[in-house]
Amino acid sequence: MSRKLRLWLIFALLLALTLPLRSPHAQRQPERLRVQIHSVRPHDPSAFTQGLLIHDGFFYESTGLYGQSTLRKVDMQTGEVLQQLSLPAEFFAEGLALVGERLIQLTWREQVAFVYDLETFEQRETFTYIGEGWGLCYDQETNALYMSNGSHVLYVRDPETFSAVRQLEIMLDDVPIRNLNELECVGDSIYANIWFSDQILRIDKRTGRITAIIDASNLLTPEEREAIGRAGTLNGIAYDAETERFFLTGKLWQWLFEVDFVPELPENYVTPTPLVR
Fold it and tell me: CB of 193 within 8 A of CB of 200?
């Protein structure tokens, strides 16, 4: 071995020893995105929104609170509730997903998921699970349900049996990101509300890596936030595959927003005027 090669190898070894060890959870920094509003729709201000999805031109919504929990079919333009099923008072409804012709609705602490007929809302069966239920979405590509429970872990479940088949730990710079709430499965990603936050995460559905952090703090005015109170947190993500746009709302919000997620807002951007109910 030549003297020059030996010196090069020694230099490379010394350089490697000075570099910090890379954590197995370390990841590329996520994109920073903002919400661009395209339209503002009416939303029932008494709805404690827990789950939201779009199917055949209608919203399907799960609302919570004991004694007030419902399953709803809602007009996308007017916010009118077209069909509604009230849950027994002992159940606090949570996330909602559509699998084929079945709607699956979680409950918070009751460890029961109700399965309904899409058209009639007739209950077909129930699933049971351990722990709390928060958010739920269905990924048609992999035929899998993704479920949150308020921790930093997402559980991947079989849509026929509801059994857990694997789990994803959601970390950022070695820090567990807890309070993952309402979920929406879109393409290779899962979009997740963070409870009591104006942020939405975009998560790689295969690895759990956070690929984007979305700032949605511009949806409500300070006056609207004050009127709703602390309980009225951002919660409700639905994706419209036809327009390739998202819809966002929150617990007890009077508005539902049609949005895009963009790197930055244009200088001439003006927030649209809400539609009149």
Answer: yes
Confidence (pLDDT) at 3 = 52
Chain CA centroid to CA 119, Å: 24
Q: Return the pLDDT at 235.
A: 97
Looking at residue 10, what is its pLDDT? Answer: 40
24-262: in CATH 2.130.10.10: yes
> Which two three-digit tokens encode residue 55?
């199917």
State how far the Cα of 258 lies from the Cα of 240, in Å rounded to an integer: 9
Contacts of 119 (CB under 8 A, 6+ apart): 101
Q: What is the pTM of this model?
A: 0.88
Residue-range domain boundaries for the chain: 24-262
Give pLDDT, residue 11.
Answer: 42
Q: Check residue 16 and give its pLDDT.
A: 40
Round to whole Å and give the CA distance between 31 and 226: 30
Question: Does residue 212 contact residue 29 with C-beta atoms inside 8 Å?
Answer: no
By C-alpha distance, which of 213, 194, 186 is closest to 202?
213
Pair 254, 45: CB distance under 8 Å? yes
pLDDT averaged per 10 residues, the chain (length 277): 48 39 58 96 98 98 98 97 98 98 98 98 98 98 97 98 97 95 98 96 97 96 93 96 97 97 84 67
**Is the backbone of residue 65 left (phi > 0), alpha (psi -120 to 50) or beta?**
left
d(CA 224, CA 127): 38
